[in-house]
Each structure stands twice: as structure tokens, then as C-alpha cells.
Amino acid sequence: MVMAMKIRMRKRVVAGVWLVFWLMGIVGVCGKSSSKKSTYIAYNTSHGIVPGKINVHLVPHSHDDVGWLKTVDQYYFGGNNSIRGACVQNVLDSVISALLDDPNRKFIYVEMAFFQRWWRQQSPVIKTKVNGLVNSGQLEFINGGMCMHDEAAAHYIDLIDQTTLGHLFIKDEFNQVPRVGWQIDPFGHSAVQAYLLGAELGFDSLFFARIDYQDRAKRKDGKTLEVVWQGSKSLDSSSQIFTSIFPRHYDPPDGFTFEINDVSPPIQDDPLLFDYNVQERVDDFVAAALSQANVTRTNHIMWAMGTDFRYQYGLSWFRQMDKFIHYVNQDGRVNALYSTPSIYTDAKYAANESWPLKTEDFFPYADRANAYWTGYFTSRPAFKGYVRVLSGYYLAARQLEFFEGRNTLGPNTDALADALAIAQHHDAVSGTQRQHVAADYAKRLAIGYLEAEELVASSLAFLSESKFSSRHGNQVTKFQQAMSFMSRTSSDHCPLLNISYCPPSETALSDGKSLVVLVYNPLAWEREEVVRIPLDLYLCGMSQKISLNDKVSSEWITVQDSGGREIESQLIPISDISLSARNYFVKSYLGRSPGSTPLYWLAFQVSVPPLGYSTYSVTSAKQRAAKLSEIRTFQEETDTAIEVGRGSLKLLYSANGKLTRYVNRRSSVTACAEQAYFYYSGHDGNDSDHQASGAYVFRPNGIFAIKPVNQASLSVMRGLILDEVHQQLNPWIYQITRVYKGKEHAEVEFSVGPIPVDDGIGKEIVTRITTAMKTNRTFYTDSNGRDFIKRVRDYRSDWDLQVTQPVAGNYYPINLGIYIEDGNMELSVLVDRSVGGSSLTDGQIELMLHRRLLHDDIRGVGEVLNEEVCAHDECEGLVVRGKYYVRIDPIGEGAKWRRTAGQEIYSPLLLAFTEQDGNNWMNSHLSTFSAMEASYSLPKNVALITLQELENGKVLVRLAHLYEIGEDKDFSKMARVELKKMFREKKIARVTEMSLSANQERAEMGKKKLSWKVEACRGEGPKAVRGGSVDPVKLVVELAPMEIRTFLIDFEILQLFGS
Ligand SMILES: [Zn+2]
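Above are the sequence and the zinc ion SMILES. Below is the predicted complex in C-alpha cell form.
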């Protein structure tokens, strides 16, 4: 009752108010009927740059993640909208129509993965119209790779490949060459991005948002948000790029966002409607512009008009920008215009300003005091490993595709190329996507791999049969691959070899047959390595596992090279932990039990020519044999040091199983060295700062040593080829250290997980190698696997660092390796995937290997990083298995190993298997092959990083100098490659040097290059050296330190190898 009365009373009051307004309205309309008209307004949006005024460049854009909370396809077609209402198809449809409505409107598009999806479904009429928009500059492709790639956890070869894929699409469809880098979202920025994926692409400028909050504050104060960035000390000013860092983020100033549900007040300019606000909004605009102009040099400022997945109804933005441009320019205090980053760049260039110089990179990135985005360097380590393995495989598969001849209809590498490109996205290889999206990336990779695997099998069969048969595409040899047991049609590389699962090698020795192992080397220099394959000796006539205590040199297996010479081989028992991992993961990944169980690894030394293969046969023999490793398990009572290693390198372990000493007899290096595991407990954000450790952010809350449960459990297996040290540290960390007779580094294979979290605490697992070296707070980490950058603990060269996170703030991304040095020696650690790492005290190197966390770190992903594997109706934490490689060299000699071994780790030998009766296969096939001229090999400071036949029949070749200036006394020199000798049996007709992404001739790119002025801050040093132009007759390519040169080659006769 009481309620009802109140409502009635209020109604009466409201009615009274309305009456007053109504009367005022009548008075108003009658009094000013001539000026208050509502009519069509032709907004003048045609303004260009006005000299002498502050020019506000409005750059309409949509930041479209190629997968993050949803999969790339879900984002494209608008699926799974309960997670996020995002549909890129809407963005492109509505933007194109808005651009067609007004020729002054502009838009930039960045991610070709989305644009391709849209483009292939457009009608010829729309395609013609869009071509018109692109040609007029209304629609501009910038960045132009398949995705906006991550800059911390991606390898430079992947970055080049994914950018090339997008750039060639743009070139083919639109004949356009992107000229701007747009890396607005990645979480920190790499030196390689600046010089290689920037300047060397022919980009004139680079834009991004995320830099350290302390750095940004200083740059705003000093107007140094815009710089000339020289990312490479070797290429120096010959490879610099104008770089613009946004003052805040990649969205417009507050109050200027206009997606349909946004809260910014739109301009209301109909005088007949209430809330007319033109002057108020113009004032807001001018104020925001002046505020930005205060931190920016020259009178050009840019507003990034858009943010994540905006312009789903594009007109809602363009309508407002039309009005702002119209009214702000009528007002006249500042000038507003539709623009693009290219127009902005040209305006900056025309201002003829000198810019501050920036060197090195922008890692690590913190957006607040306790929020260092250094956890993602390691997040999802298994996925990071998968990306890296397939990256190397893709490089090899393209070579083999070229040797056989590209076949668009048959199996090819296109699907793998596409999957790898998408996997470089800044929420993909970074490990910062949701779990179902991570699964989607992995599924795409697996599909791409399966097709590439078929191609590899067919190419190897073609090469090995070509001398003996004129048939093409009708090979007899069926190379077995590990995953192919499902189809039983093709060949291998054994992707599950890391869990000792390789059905082809396990089964082929039955019925008196022998196993042919073809070993392909994708590197353009000869290599000698040890390969290991799991063997099932039951099938070789052995009725039981040889007892671990048997001192046997039982004669069961023999390995011969292609000349029939027996070579040294060694049997190593497969550890029980490996076998249980094998059973568990084969069941969970493949949905079936692995069948019989191999008991041994067979290891043998192979020697493989450059860009070619060798073959070996493995036979069960009564007489001669692989020697079984001698096995000793050391228990607590051992009181003498244990020495491991049969060649130059010896590792010494104490009686209680701890590594104590590293000795290299050849180089006379002796060092005390220890290695141990620790975990950081992930902060739960339960304090005054709610920042937790999560997918992006590393915020440790204490460090704890992981003490070996069983103090002295150390098993050593010694043999003619390698020694292995097995250590079970606790129920979830197992480690095997291998020392090869012919190598001077130690290979450490770790198996970490499931990380226990029953105590409610997330954990981040690290390994530390500790020496007594005095390293003066200094260490070196690579940039995307290429240049090494000097890091100094608790120090930044660009500002006075306020240390808030002494661990997380000293973490850096590692793709190739990390090293430290004192005056006498250098300790290097190389990795098999991207990880985070540091040197937190002198003489020590730390790598983060795995993370399992229980809290979201509030950066948008909205899920905890708690990876699990489900099998047998149960889920448990993910186990990560990987390798790192350790070596200590005399000072000045480490680079040779880091560069050569780094390349070998990236491009492992590819193994394929088939079986034969007697010597049948060997006698009827080409058992060794090299694509290059006999005895030719690339110099050791050059790698062939691309050899690929393009759709148009041209062949794309990239050569990379592997050393920086001053890095090595022998190899930091001009290198020469004789192209003619690289292609035996093929005659080169024409060689054209191209930009890095092969979308324009290098000479053209050079002519267009802008020459930015740098503030005088140092003397004019010597100009960076570069290789000279290629003589069309001699065809010798020169490469200066760190130079990568890209060529398109036409061959005279498209005759195939061997045919
Ligand atoms: Zn993003």
C-alpha cells in the first residue's frame, strides 16, 4: 500500500516537470525556427595534412587475434560467441561497405590468416571493388604476415616463413608491398623484429604499444617514444627502422571508442534532438590531442582508432570519425584526418627531425611493479617444443619437396606451412591461449605434419629409386614413419621417438629381414652424429631382456653403412620410466596400446653429406654385434668420484651422485660445475597486490630446492659411443645426461611432471647450472635464435631500473641459448625450444623448464595455466620432456659450438625406415645422395635457411650468415657461397635478389628506403659491411656477418634430380 501511494505521487511530480519542458519547447521552436533545422549534413572528411597545425592521424584498425580465447576459425565466423562476441567476417564485410560509401575513409588490415578466409569466399564483383580500395590506398595491408607474431618465443626462421606466406599472398592478389610493421600487442619487442622482420622486409616504420611501464614513463617525459631503432650491431645503421611506441595502448584516447555497445558519447549534431554536444565533443578531442602532442615530437600524432575485434559494425566508428573530422576542422585548433601508419610515417619523415637512437630490444616487459610478463617465455613448454620440432621438419620437407618437384595436387607442405604460420601468433607459441585453442593449434600442426610426412616419404623413395627407374610418382619403396602405422603407407621421422616409440624400427627385423635406416641431413654441410632408435630384440631372436648386471657383449645386432662396412654400434637399455611414459602417452595420444615393448636403444654413428642422405642397415646377426652398454648403479657406499665420458669430455660425479666437475682434455678446460633443480612457488595474488603468477606473468613467491629423494641413485651406462647417467630425482623429475665420445658437450634430457599441486601451490620448475665463474652480473641471451644480446642483472641501458622483482625482472626469452663468460672461459647452454632463463647470481645459468599454476594472472585469458593429459579415464598434470645442451669452452671459442650445434639442434637428422631381404634394397637403390656437387659444402658460417619451390616454379633460396661482427675470430668474416655448386644436375638460368619476404626485388627496396636522421650521440663509426651484388655469370653470393640474403632462382631445365 505505502509503495503504491509513493509511486502515484512521483507520477504527478514528473508530469508537472514535463509540462514545463513542453512549454519551453514550444517557445524555443517558435522563437528560433530559422536556425534550428535538422537536415542532411555532408561531412567534409577530405582533409589532408595541414602544415603548422597539430595533425591528428586517425587510423581505423581492428586487432584480430589469430586465436586466443576462441580458435582462429571461431573468431572468423563468429562461433563460440558465449566466450566472446567476436566475428571477423563481420569486421571485413562492414568495413568494406563503409569504405565504399566514402572515398576519404581508410582502414588498415593486418592478419592475412583472417583476410584469406574472407577473400576466398567473395564474389568477383566484391573482389574487383576491394582491389579498387587497395589500389586507391583506402584499404592498406600493413604488417601483412599471416598473424601478428610473438616476438619472444618464436624462432626467426618461423617469423620469416609466416611473414613470407602473408606477403606473397598480398603480392599475388593485389600486387602490393606492405611498408609498415604493426606489432601492437606482443608482450615485449625483439631486436630481430626491428632489423630483420622490419628493415630487411623494406618496412619504413614499426608501431607497437607494450613496453615496460618505467621505460614508458621516461620516454613520455623526454619525448622519446619515437626512435630510430638499430636492432643489429652487425648490420648497424644499414638496417634501422623508425619506431613509434604508443603513449598508452593500441586503443583511442578515453572517450573515443565507438563499437555499438561502447560508452563513449557519440557526437549528437541534430539540433532537433536533445543532448546536442558538438562543441563539447570537439573540446574533448582537442584536449586529448594536445595532451598527446605534449609527449610527441613534430606536430603529427596518431590515434589508433580501434582495439580487439572492433568494427563488427564498422559504420558505428566511421560515422563518428566523419563527424569529428568535420567539426574539429571547422573548429580549427587542430587538424584531424583519416590516415594510415604509412601516411603518418611519411609525415614524420618529411618533418626532417633527428630521432633518438635505440639499440638492443624491449625485453622484459612489465606493465606494473609486480607484473613481469616473463612467465610466457616458458608457458606450455610441450607446445613450444612441438612448434620447434615441426619448424625444423618443415624446412627439411620443403627441400625434399623441391627435389621431387612440387605437386599442388598430391601431398605437399602447404598445410604445414599454414599451421606453423598461425602457431607464431602472439597468443599461440607464447602459450597464452585457452586450453581448447592450444589443442586447435596442435591439431592443425598434426594435420599439416601428416601430409608433409607423406610427401617426405614419397620424395625419399623418388630420390633413392631415381637412378634405377624412370618412373616418377610410382615408387616401390614404402618408407615407414612412426605415425604411419595407422595407414601403413608412408615413411618416417618418428615423432614419438622422444618417448621411445617408433614402430618401424621396432618391427622390421622380423623374419630374417633387415632394417634400412635412411638418414637425411637438411643442413648444407656434412655432419657426423649419433642416431638412436628403439629396437625390439624379441623379434631378433632374443628370448629375454639381458640382465642389467650381465657383463655382456652379446652378439645380436650389427649395423652396416651403405658400403657394407660394419660400423660401431651400442645397445642401451631403455629405462623403465621411459617405457612407462611410452605406454601412457601412446595410449593417451593414439588411443591404443603400443603392443610389444622395445628394450633397447640402438645407437650408431652416422656420417651424412650436405643436403643429402646416407643409408644404414641394421641386421640381426649371430656373429658380430652392437655392444651392450656396461651398466653400473652407484649406491651410497661408493666413495670415489664417478667419471663419465669416453672422449675429450669427462663429467665427474661425487660419491653421492652430484655433478662436480667438467673437464675437457682437448681444450684443457676444467671447471667446477653443479646442476640442480628448484621450484618457484607461484604467487597466488593474495596480498595487497592481486597479481598472481599465470600464463603471462611470472611472480614467484619463494624458491625451494628439489632435493633428490634417494640421495645416491645414479645409474651409469657406458659404451663405445656414448655414456649415459640416469638420475631419478623424485617421482616427477627424471634426468639422463649423455656424453658422446665424439662430442664435447653434455646433452641433458629432462622429464618433468606431473608437477604436484595437491598442496594448493602452483609451481614453476627451473634447473640451475652453477660454476665458480666471476661473471660480473653479465649474461647473453639470443634474440629469436639469432643475435646475442648482452644482459646485465638488475640493469637496463635505457633507464635507471627500479628493481621490484629481482627474479622475474631478470628473465629473458631464450630460443637458441644463453651463455656467461669470465676472463678464462665461457659456459653455454643451448635449448631445444623456447624457454625463459637468466643468470641470477654470478657463474650460474638458470632455465625455466615447466610451469603449472592455479591462478589466472588477470590479463584476459581467464583460465589457469594448468595443463593436463587425460588417459584411461583419468587426468593428470602434463609431463614435459626436452633437452638442453651444455658446454664450457676457453674464452673466445664458444661461438663456434653455439652456432654450429644450434643449427644442428634446429635441424635434426630426419630418419626414415624400410626393410629389405638380404642386401636387396641396398643393391637396387641409390644409397647415398647429395643435392650439391660432390665435395661441395657451404662454409660453416652460413646456413641454408630456405630452399623451396614456389607455386610459380621459381625456387626460393635464403642464405644466412650465422655470426655477428666480432663474435668469432675465424667466422665473423665475409662468407662466400657458390650457387652453381649447390645444385648438382641443375642449371641456373637467372638469379634475382629479393627482399627478405621475397615480395620485391632487393634493388627496388633499396631505392625506396627512407634515410632517417639519428640524434648525434656517437661518432660516425665505420658503415656496416654487406655482401656485394651477385655476378650473373659467376653466381657467387657474399654474406657479411649476420646478413641474410634471399633469392629467387629460375632453373634452365626443370629437370629433376637423378632422372
Ligand atoms: Zn592480441
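The longest helix spans residues 435-465.
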